[in-house]
Amino acid sequence: MIKLVILLAVATVGFMVWCLVEAISADGSRTRNLSKAVWIPVILLLPLVGALAWVFAGRPQAVAATAAGRPPQDLTRRSDPTNPAEEAADFSDRARRRVEEQRRRYEQQKKNKDQETPEVE
């Protein structure tokens, strides 16, 4: 019986922590019924009831993408894994372009800095 109580207590604390992290990281303009600044103390001060209220009444719904006519995105996959070689080549190409762009910016900043500072003899 004690093990069950401990298990339920740990599950409750874990659920509250998850709800608190969700509330903190949620977009304040999309929270429902109360402002984000009110939801956080509600979750903290009303242990299980506040967390359940957040899930059912405060948490932003993920319906925005479907409302615009687009299917919701699968955030676990960014590309089609059917062709790993193509995916790897695409990743390498993007990484190479990003490095080249960073190198160009660095060289431009270095050049601008050299032009601004007068030489001391």
Automatic annotation (TrEMBL):
It is a multi-pass membrane protein. The chain crosses the membrane at residues 39-57. Keywords: Cell membrane, Membrane, Transmembrane, Transmembrane helix. The keyword Ribosomal protein does not apply. Residues 64-121 are annotated as: Disordered. Pfam families: PLDc_N. Residues 15-59 form the Cardiolipin synthase N-terminal domain. It is found in: Cell membrane. One of its GO terms (cellular component) is plasma membrane. InterPro entries: CLS_N. Residues 91-121 have a biased composition (Basic and acidic residues). This is Cardiolipin synthase N-terminal domain-containing protein. It comes from Nocardioides currus.
